[in-house]
Amino acid sequence: xxxxxxxxxxxxxxxxxxxxxxxxxxxxxxxxxxxxxxxxxxxxxxxxxxxxxxxxxxxxxxxxxxxxxxxxxxxxxxxxxxxxxxxxxxxxxxxxxxxxxxxxxxxxxxxxxxxxxxxxxxxxxxxxxxxxxxxxxxxxxxxxxxxxxxxxxxxxxxxxxxxxxxxxxxxxxxxxxxxxxxxxxxxxxxxxxxxxxxxxxxxxxxxxxxxxxxxxxxxxxxxxxxxxxxxxxxxxxxxxxxxxxxxxxxxxxxxxxxxxxxxxxxxxxxxxxxxxxxxxxxxxxxxxxxxxxxxxxxxxxxxxxxxxxxxxxxxxxxxxxxxxxxxxxxxxxxxxxxxxxxxxxxxxxxxxxxxxx
Amino acid sequence: xxxxxxxxxxxxxxxxxxxxxxxxxxxxxxxxxxxxxxxxxxxxxxxxxxxxxxxxxxxxxxxxxxxxxxxxxxxxxxxxxxxxxxxxxxxxxxxxxxxxxxxxxxxxxxxxxxxxxxxxxxxxxxxxxxxxxxxxxxxxxxxxxxxxxxxxxxxxxxxxxxxxxxxxxxxxxxxxxxxxxxxxxxxxxxxxxxxxxxxxxxxxxxxxxxxxxxxxxxxxxxxxxxxxxxxxxxxxxxxxxxxxxxxxxxxxxxxxxxxxxxxxxxxxxxxxxxxxxxxxxxxxxxxxx
Lengths: 357, 289
Fold this sequence. Notes:
The complex is a heterodimer.
Chain A: H1 30-35, H2 40-56, H3 63-88, H4 96-113, H5 118-143, H6 147-170, H7 184-192, E1 194-197, E2 200-203, H8 204-222, H9 224-234, H10 236-241, H11 246-272, H12 283-293, H13 305-324, H14 332-355
Antiparallel strand pairs in A: 1-2
Helix pairs in contact in A: 2-13, 2-14, 3-8, 3-9, 3-11, 3-12, 3-13, 4-5, 4-6, 4-11, 5-6, 5-11, 7-11, 8-9, 9-11, 12-13, 12-14
Chain B: H1 5-11, E1 15-24, E2 27-37, E3 42-47, H2 53-61, E4 68-73, E5 76-77, H3 83-88, E6 91-94, H4 106-111, E7 117-118, E8 125-126, H5 128-141, H6 158-171, E9 176-180, H7 188-203, E10 207-212, H8 215-221, E11 224-229, E12 232-238, H9 244-251, H10 255-265, H11 281-285
Keywords (chain B): ATP-binding, Nucleotide-binding
GO molecular function, one term (chain B): ATP binding
Protein name (chain B): ATP-binding cassette domain-containing protein
């Protein structure tokens, strides 16, 4: 009855009759389609950096060193994931770095000052972190100001709050050690324990990092919400016009950053027992750098979670690689800057190649 | 209005505007506009730049709210808060910028905002295979064949993107399709393709609001013509009541054009017997010695 040509879905490469294709776009080659993936540029870069340090730094070749590199990567990587999602959704969060410290301070002070189980502090910190994210998102959506400005504001406010409130409550710039409090060992097991895999001691944050990456990637590519994230970053007005809840998407993305800040904050708290109130400043740019190195488009609408993982890994390799190569660590930021520029240029070039018709 | 139930389904207008207007602060962008859209009918809204066409469709599509007059859908007065409300009532808009996200693949754009999913909540995920298949099917039904639904929609031609946007609106059960200058940026052949889809949508029983500033395109498919000028109605006439020439005349501003014609008559080389296209007017008068 109906036309048989409709039985042929897009899967069969050359359509049955020549009239089926419009004849102007040849099937792109497999190589070109591979290049079109956002994580390809960073993967190539990561391999180059790996080979480089593998060659120049003998210590770098040991399994223990790899575990340290991974740990270093995970502390940046866990935060870089939500920051990358937010960037794909078209926004920045400059308050992410100090947000980590705010969360750790909250948990520490709530548990210590009220002499409660540390889990209470952990829960309060989660609420506070999510609230900061929601506030960022709400202000952004309500005022229509660029996220750069809104989060610069919260960044400064949190920085001030961290110092002032900590001094006010503890009379010191750091919080008191909570290592002898109820629930500390439990919480440490979750946020900051060591796990032995094939004879190598690995920090649990590495596993959390990979688990979060898998979730982020799944959400981004396989769910409705992920579709909305790409859409609000790619073209906010269009997304709104076809019925995507733009405000909801943006606010929840900021809250995801809050969640990441909470998790990393808890790790720092249970790894070091105390928190320095002035820390965290500048880290927000490292998260953004990892996301950009990982192939996320600064203007939104394009990027991937896997790429961000590799971006953070590259970051970890350079941090530790410099140490293993016995260089002066002062050079680190220079390397990072070169890497960032290089990665951005490579990504740009690859995208041009891939979308060229 | 008492319409009897039997013939009412066909004849009753879906969208009715009476005396609708919109003010932004003390700027009156639109006032006293009447418009009726019935199923299986193409209502053309014409007007020069700044005539109020965009304001009008923004009201109907739920992006803005009217500040005067009455807006009825199926005879019921409404005030739409968001484009989602309009969509829920079967009014779909294909915007000038097409409301597509250029870097996203064709199939993701097709279903954006109304994605198909499967599975239960924590694991509820996109039904990618079904979406791709449906998008392909729907596009083919409209006579659009794309080689690769994974390609970013930004890499399609203007006409193709327009067609995808129309197919999307038709698929999602639109009863009224608002097309905002769909032929504005297109070449002659691609415009023809889009006009064909407009006719196809009408034949499927949709009410179409076709916004354009090209009277020729409007006259090819229109059943009713509404011309806006300076934010108010210049003309509202059925096809039988107006000729293409009159339409062009109204479109170009009637009396104003007559005055202009008088001036142009004194310039050598301008053939005033044939009314010039409004777009040609500035260039025709400029090189005068």
